[in-house]
Amino acid sequence: MKDLWIIANFKSKKNLVSTLEWIDLVGPRLTKSNSLKVALCPSTVSLVEAKKRIQVNNYPLFLGSQDLSAFPPGAYTGEEPAEHLKDFIDIAILGHSERRSNFKEDEKLLDSKVKQAVGCGIKPLFCVQSEKTPIPKDCNLVAYEPVFAIGTGTADTPANADNVASQIKKNLNREVEILYGGSVTSKNAQDFLECKNISGVLVGTASLDPQEFLNILSSC
Ligand code: PGA
Predict the structure, then answer these.
(1) Cβ atoms 122, 91 nearer than 8 A
(2) pTM (two decimals)
(3) How many other β-carbons are positioned within 10 Å of the β-carbon of residue 207?
(4) What is the distance between the alpha carbons of residues 147 and 8, in angstroms, rounded to a whole number?
């Protein structure tokens, strides 16, 4: 049986109160497992309280950020350095297409972000939009997220996603886990999770509803 990741990406859609409500509903339904890793990436402002809530209740839930600074701590107004985030998070989503397009994040900047994350013991979850997207070294958790599928309700086909994941593995020629993201729901999650080259899903819209997220988890 392969290891699976199920990761919720809240984007900028939930505030602290609704993030904690979500944790209170989902957390008690999670069971400890070595092969299934469940992670939540809320907005940065929710990370500290989310971490407390998870720790106090001992929920088997990893936490992640949706970005981090390309710089170390210093005179970088508005930035959240990995060095500060590392006390709260296990993973960091980097290279999401929404950041590439809205904030003009390029390969050089993303390379620096990956270096900052890895240097602080944070696992980058590096998003690529196709098998051609460059992947910095040290990234061994990659999400294939075709832009046409993000937030549109039209997912890629599992066969194509599996094919892209296989290409990425061939190109990298090293141990790497590939997730699929883009309009994943409880109706199609299992089809992606069953693909040979896919080790999990990154879920945006469908992760916001705790019950829908739990339904996705039960596909595992
Ligand atoms: P979506 O978003 O599930 O709403 O398509 C996925 C993502 O952007 O990570």
Answers:
(1) yes
(2) 0.97
(3) 26
(4) 18
Q: Whose C-alpha lies nearest to ligand 1, atom 1?
A: 204
Locate 181 and state its tokens.
């993201």
In tens, the pLDDT along 40-93 reads 999 999 999 999 999 999 999 999 999 999 999 999 999 999 999 999 999 999
Q: Active-site residues: which are they? A: 96, 145
Cα distance between residue 47 and residue 40, in whole Å:
10
- Ligand 1 surroundings by CB, under 6 angstroms: 9, 145, 150-151, 181-184, 202-206
